[in-house]
Design a protein that fits this description.
Distance between the termini: 14 Å
Number of domains: 1
CATH architecture: 3-Layer(aba) Sandwich
Shape: globular
Helix content: 25-40%
Structural class: alpha/beta
Largest sheet: 6 strands, parallel
Radius of gyration: 17 Å
Oligomer: single chain
CATH class: Alpha Beta
């Protein structure tokens, strides 16, 4: 069973693009049962069930992951926490009167492991985004990554400030004893000055291979991008 934890240098840098593309790349590489997991999704809309039977809180990232996956599982497995408010997960959880339990997420991940050949876990926000603050205990996405002990793929949103964000994120990943398996350069600002020079700096100072470099293209589908992604 193969599994990866996808993190980003910030929110809105292309984690879902990288996660769904990786799912397709793994499928193309011969993994039959590949599933995406979004442990915590903040910013969900209520979607009614078919024929009026129930419904669920649903996030567009989760929709994309499920569309890319070849294995379909109960929502409690691939998205244990779906929160309405589009804010930091620990705040969204408080607004929903919910406590994000990392042990529950870990159990959901292990349940997926029992059924899948490969699991792609997409984190929320940046690497150290807060997930839970309860009774004086503060837990973040980095704590979740440590619990799962998965190799990490970092998505770098190419825009002004990305060097600082990427180097700090790498430092945080390595400081926790995790493996940085690779990184993806994803252009989020097509007008970024000195893009090539920034990319060269990242290649020189990030201690993992660049798995892909994607230009600005809002229409690119993950199945189309899969061939351009080098598997870790």
């Amino acid at each position: 069973m193969s599994a990866y934890f996808i993190t980003g240098t910030d929110t809105g840098v292309g984690k879902t693009r990288a996660s769904t593309t990786l799912i397709h790349a793994l499928r193309d590489a011969g993994y039959k049962r590949v599933v995406g997991m979004k442990p915590v999704a903040a910013g969900c809309d209520w979607v009614e069930g078919g024929n009026g039977h129930g419904g669920e809180w649903l996030n567009e990232d989760v929709v994309a992951l499920r569309a890319a996956s070849s294995l379909h599982v109960p929502p409690s497995f691939d998205n244990p926490y779906a929160l309405p408010a589009a804010v930091s997960p620990h705040i969204a959880a408080k607004l929903a009167d919910t406590v994000i339990d990392l042990s529950h997420i870990e159990a959901s991940f292990h349940a997926l492991q029992q059924h899948a050949d490969a699991v792609v876990v997409e984190g929320a926000g940046g690497f150290i985004v807060p997930l839970s603050e309860q009774d004086g205990v503060f837990e973040t996405s980095a704590d979740l990554a440590q619990r799962l002990r998965l190799p990490v793929i970092m998505v770098v949103g190419l825009r002004l400030g990305c060097l600082n964000h990427a180097l700090l994120t790498q430092e945080a990943i390595l400081a926790r004893g995790l493996t940085l398996a690779g990184w993806v350069a994803n252009v989020v600002d097509p007008h970024m000055p000195e893009q090539a020079a920034n990319l060269a700096t990242l290649q020189a100072h990030l201690q993992a291979p660049m798995l892909a470099h994607w230009g600005w293209d809002a229409q690119a589908r993950p199945d189309q991008l899969a061939s351009s992604l080098r598997l870790p």
